[in-house]
Amino acid sequence: MSAYVPAVLLVWDRIGDYHAARFAAMEKAIGNKVFIADLGGNDALYGWKNPLQKQKGYFSLSDKPVEQPDFLNRIRTFIRLVRNQKIEVAGLAGYGRPEYLAMLLICKLLNIKVILFAESWYGDNKVLNFLKGKFLGQTCHGFLVSGLKAKEHFEKKLGLNPEKIRTGYSVVDNGHFSRHGNYEKENMLLCVARFSPEKNLVRLIRAFKKSELASGWTLLLVGGGPQKPELEQEIGHFPGIQLADWLSYAELPLLYSRARFFILPSSFEPWGLVVNEAMAAGLPIALSENVGARPDLLTEENGFVFDAQNEESILQCLNRIGNLSTGQSNEMGEKSKSLISGFTARIWAEKFMELAE
Fold first, then answer.
1. Domain with 41 in it: what CATH number?
2. Residues of 74-106 as b/e, b for ≥16 C-beta within 10 angstroms?
3. CA pair distance 340, 172, nearest whole angstrom
4. N or C: which terminal CB in the chain sees fewer CB atoms within 10 Å?
5. Averaged pLDDT, groups of 10, the chain, 357 residues long
6. What is the total count of domains within the chain?
7. The domain containing residue 264 runs over which residues?
C-alpha cells in the first residue's frame, strides 16, 4: 500500500522558468496533487515569461501585475483555491508582502501546513527579529531556506527550531545550463546581473581597467537596468568591456558556454541564482563576500572571494584569474559542476516533502 500524499500548493510572486523547474520536480515526486499559483501574471522588473500559463495545475491569483495592488481579490482567490483543491500543504515565498502575511494566517485557521521559502539572512533589529520569529514559529510548519547564511539567521536571530529548517531552496535546472553550444571558450569574464547599484558594477569596471585581464580579455556585463547610462559613462571608450541587455532563459546556456570565468561583485545579494547557472555550465566563479551563495557554493577549489567594498581586493582577484592556466581554470570549472550537483530541483522537492511530514 502506497504512502499517503497530501495536496500541495506552491505560491510565488510571479511564475518563471526557475519556478517551473521546481514544479516539475514536485510533480515527479507526488504526481498530480501539486498546484502552483502566482500573485500576478507579469512583473515590471524582470519581464519573465510564464512557461506554465497553460499548464494544468497553474492558477493566477490576480489578472493584475504583481506590483499593482489587488489584495482582497488575491486573498479571496487563494481561499477558493485551497478549499476547492483541498490543499493540505502550502509553500509560500516568504513574508515580505501583505498577501503572504494574510495567507499565513488563513492557513493557520484552515489547518494547512505552511513551508516557508526564504533567502533572507540580513536584519539585526533584535526586537523585530524576535517578533518575526514568534509570528513565523506560530504560523509555519517548516522553513526551506537558501543556504547556510539563511539557516543561521533563522536559527540564531529569529530563534526558530533548527529541526524545522532545511537548506536547498535556491536551485535551478542544472541540466538546462549545462547544454553547451558548439563554441570554444573565449577569454571572457562574464557577469550576469541587473544594472543597479547593489550589483556593484562600477567598482568591477574600474578594477578591470587596471587589471592584467584588461589586455587580452573581455568583461561582458549582461542584464540591463536603470544604471546602464552610468555604466556606459564609466566604460567610456575602453574596448575590453561590453554591455548587453537582459537575455532570455533559452539564450543563457550559450552565453555561459562561451565564457571562461564568472564573477558576481554584488554589495548585497540574498543568494544569486546566476551563480548556480554558471556552475552548472562548468564555470569557475569569483564572488564578493556579500553574495549569499558564497558559503555554500564557493571553495578554494572552484574560485575566489573578494571584498565588494574594496576596489583593490577586486583588482587582486582579477589578477589571480589572469594568472591561471587554461588547464587550471578548466579544472576549477569541473569542480563547480561537481559542487552544484548537490543543489537540484529534485533535492528541493525531497526536502520540501520531508518538512511537510
1. 3.40.50.2000
2. bbebbeebbeebebbbbbbbebebebbebbbeb
3. 10
4. N
5. 82 94 95 95 64 90 92 98 98 96 98 96 92 97 97 97 97 91 83 97 98 97 97 96 94 94 97 98 97 97 98 98 96 97 97 96
6. 2
7. 175-340
